Amino acid sequence: MSDAGKYGVVFRIEGIGEAKGELIRIKSPLTAESVWRAIPVVGKASVWMDAEVYFPAGIKRGLERAVRKVEKGDIAYWPLGDAICVFYDEIVPYSDVNVIGRVLENLAMFSRVKLGTNVTLDKA
Fold first, then answer.
1. Where along the chain do its domains lie?
2. Over the chain, what is the mean pLDDT?
3. What is the 3-state secondary structure (H, E, C) of the chain?
4. Residues 30, 64: contact at Cβ < 8 Å?
5. Is 90 exceeded by the pLDDT of residue 24?
């Protein structure tokens, strides 16, 4: 764990590039820890409403400080779909999510992700 309960992460999107972010433990501590321990997380991307990219997490967590309101740049875990979500535009999630972090650099690249694109979440 890095300073102040934050974990540096990087998203690698095949054929598009990389984005830096951080998991922020205080937002949803158990979920953030589970994602951190599962890294690297690799999956095929899905896109929701031209505002969100999500991919399988494989951690099977429940709701933790769940919300239906997210901000552009939020990284969240979606319990219903067992998926990691990146919100690159304004949207209301399909159902409650556990916000676990933020994208810090290169958020705009997520708008170029297409269905089935390989996505990797790794430690920075």
1. 3-123
2. 95
3. CCHHHEEEEEEEECCCEEEEEEEECCCCHHHHHHHHHHCCEEEECEEECCCEEEEECCCCCCCCCCECCCCCCEEEEEHHHCEEEEECCCCCCCCCEEEEEEEEECHHHHHHCCCCCEEEEEEC
4. yes
5. yes
Please state the pTM of the whole predicted model. 0.94
Q: Which residues of 14-32 are buried (b: 16+ CB within 10 A; e: fewer)?
A: eebeebebbbbbebbeebb
**Interatomic CA distance for residues 72 and 106, integer angstroms:** 12
What CATH code is assigned to 3-123? Answer: 2.40.100.20
The pLDDT confidence band at residue 3, using thresholds 50, 70 and 90, is: low
As a whole number, mean pLDDT of residues 21-40 equals 95
pLDDT tens-digit series, residues 63-78? 999 999 999 999 999 9
How far apart are alpha carbons 24 and 42 in whole angstroms? Answer: 20
Task: Residue 38: name the closest of 19, 60, 17 by CA.
Answer: 60
Q: Are 35 and 98 spatial neighbours (Cβ–Cβ below 8 Å)?
A: no
